[in-house]
Every structure is written in C-alpha cells, then in structure tokens.
Design goal:
This protein is mostly beta strands. 0% of the residues lie in helices and 54% in strands. It contains no helices and eight strands. The mean pLDDT is 94.
Length: 128
C-alpha cells in the first residue's frame, strides 16, 4: 500500500507552481438522478452531470507567480498532484473558475491566502 505525506503535494496554476502551500483539497461529484418508478420498492439512480471543486491555502506572497493570477472570477488551468510531481505520480487537471479569495492573519500567525475554485469542464486524470 502506498502512503504519501502532505509534503509531496503540489498545485500548479497555468503551469506555474503555487508556492508556500499549507493545504490543498480537490473533490469530484456526480449528480444523482432519481430513476425510481411508482411501483418500485427501492430507490434507483443514474449518474448525471459531473462537477469538481477545490481549495488551496498558502502563505500569501504578492510576488508569487503561481498566486498572482488567482483572482475572483478568473479562469485558470489547475493541476493537483497530491503525491508529488515526479514521473508516474497521479494528477488531476481541470480548468477552474476562482470563486473566492480570502486573505487572513492572526496576531501570532503568518498572512495566509485561501483560493477556492469551481471546475469548469471535465477533469483529466493522468500522471506526471
């Protein structure tokens, strides 16, 4: 069984790595269409439209070329590589719309930015 630590993960935006990652998340969903008929005693379903979304949290860096294009409403090409970016590592690629940007800090912490995405189109699963 393969085991991976978070230190291996990368996310690229437009081919440029996003620096100083703190956390990354990516999810895919299939809409469930109820196909149950009145005479059925159990519910049945069919897979409908697919969707994806994700979130990246990093230390905010106004000079980071990976973070600069991540502004609300922007369309970006994203590649999530949870196990790393060496040959054979698994990736999820999608065109995404940035739907929110949140920059925050606390008295005892670093300035962090969280970028949330809504996928637009199909997810490509592949390898590096």
């Amino acid at each position: 069984m393969a085991v991976h630590t978070a230190v291996e993960g990368t996310v690229t935006s437009g081919g440029t790595a996003i620096a100083s990652l703190r956390s990354i998340a990516f999810s895919t969903d299939a809409e469930m269409i109820d196909t149950t008929t009145i005479s059925s005693t159990s519910k049945t379903f069919a897979a409908g439209t697919l969707s994806s979304s994700g979130e990246v949290t990093c230390f905010w860096d106004e000079a980071d070329a990976g973070q600069l294009p991540l502004i609300e409403g922007a369309t970006v090409s994203l590649v999530f590589a949870f196990e790393g970016a060496t040959s054979g590592d698994y990736t999820y690629s999608v065109s995404g719309l940035v739907n929110s940007v949140s920059i925050s800090s606390s008295v005892d912490g670093m300035v962090e930015a969280t970028f949330s995405f809504q996928g637009s189109g199909a997810v490509t699963r592949g390898t590096v």
